[in-house]
Amino acid sequence: GEMSAHHYFREFAYCDSGMIPWLLVLEIMSQQGRKLSELVDERIALFPASGEINRVVPDSQVVVKAIENHFAETSKTADHTDGLSLEFPEWRLNVRASNTEPVLRLNVESRGDVELMQRKTEEVLDIIDQF
Length: 131
What we know:
Blueprint: E1 8-9, E2 15-16, H1 19-32, H2 36-46, E3 53-56, H3 60-71, E4 77-79, E5 84-87, E6 91-97, E7 103-110, H4 114-128
Antiparallel strand pairs: 1-2, 3-7, 4-5, 5-6, 6-7
């Protein structure tokens, strides 16, 4: 799964399905006797996220390359499947150009550390805002 709500399942021929995740969530709610809001709050606390932040930039490719260069020595992995995804031990980011608007879309997530997520979000936005 991913933040844009695409969920792919091996046992469903690697196809995307929105129905399967909801059935799984309903199963968990039923088994644990918990509300959806309780389950969501627990997940949010475990993986604080910036939410999608959009910035208009003159040349998306140049900005994405600048972000990649800035973090090149510290990122564990770099993936270019959907824009640029960088992974670090305690946080990760994805930045990609919109296919429908002249903007970059940024998402930052950490492992249970709101302050780290906020600090890294600001660091990436500082790079973007230079352009």
